[in-house]
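User: I'm designing a mutation panel for Hydroxymethylglutaryl-CoA lyase and want to avoid disrupting the core. Could you give me a predicted structure to guide residue selection? Please restate the sequence first so the numbering is unambiguous.

Assistant: Good idea. Sequence first, for numbering, then the predicted structure tokens:
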Amino acid sequence: MDVTVLEVAPRDGLQNEAEIVITDDKVRLIERSVAAGIRRIEAVSFVHPGRVPQMADAEAVMADVPRVSGVSYAGLVFNDRGLDRALAAGLDEINVVVVATDTLSDRNQGCTTEVGIERWHALARRAAESGIRRTVTIAAAFGCPFEGEVAPATVLELVHRVAEAGPEEIALADTIGVGTPDRVRTLVTGARAAAPHADLRCHFHNTRNTGYANAVAALDAGASVLDASTGGVGGCPFAPNATGNIATEDLLYLLHRMGIRTGIEPIEVAETGQWLGSVLGRPVPALLGRAGPFPSPT
């Protein structure tokens, strides 16, 4: 079994950091990720710098990333201006977020969920004309920090509606880390039925220590792509306590011990996680860099 692990540390991992990470360090993080074998990287977000100051240097980052055959760079896009910037910067794929609840959608994007769907359809049409790969992410698919539980039927109706724009990929995001494997199985199975022609991707946070169990449940239910962040860093600036992406290195250890192939070297990623901790000035949440591999290399 092969699984794609999509690295989100340069974008989702760093966007919530209060101290600005310099461009050179962002590029170095991406370089190290590519060297470890990661082939899909969400590198930047094309959002107004006043909203997310950490992403203000998106064009500068993309100007210096290694352009290696087989490596695909993604960027988060919210509107036409963001798509213009993404195309000019040479992105390979875009990710457009539709939030499952109106309250978080307004906090995150300044619009209702309904308007978010309309924006996605318009951006998807433009992106298709430009030949760029399109992912749509349904955020807060497993729960909202303001409205509480989100019914599976609500999420699956959103999947059906966003699938009408023909995305290559649909992602279900546990934005605040409240999901559990039973809910993951329900949503992934339902999403596959609602959008059979799109790849299915999942984005989990480990805020309440369920992220890795959810990742396994997603694969068992038919997801083929998992997001993860080197070091386990990250969070959403617009959702309270939305910390803790699942760590790329810890996920890789889990998958490889299960015999699932990724093409990525977990020890190299763990070393990058330790390096990232030195950049941020604190230990990262990931555990593989502390515990080491098993069996130990001889």
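For picking mutation sites, this is relevant: The longest strand covers residues 40-46. Strands lie at 4-7, 40-46, 72-77, 93-99, 133-139, 169-174, 199-204, 225-228.
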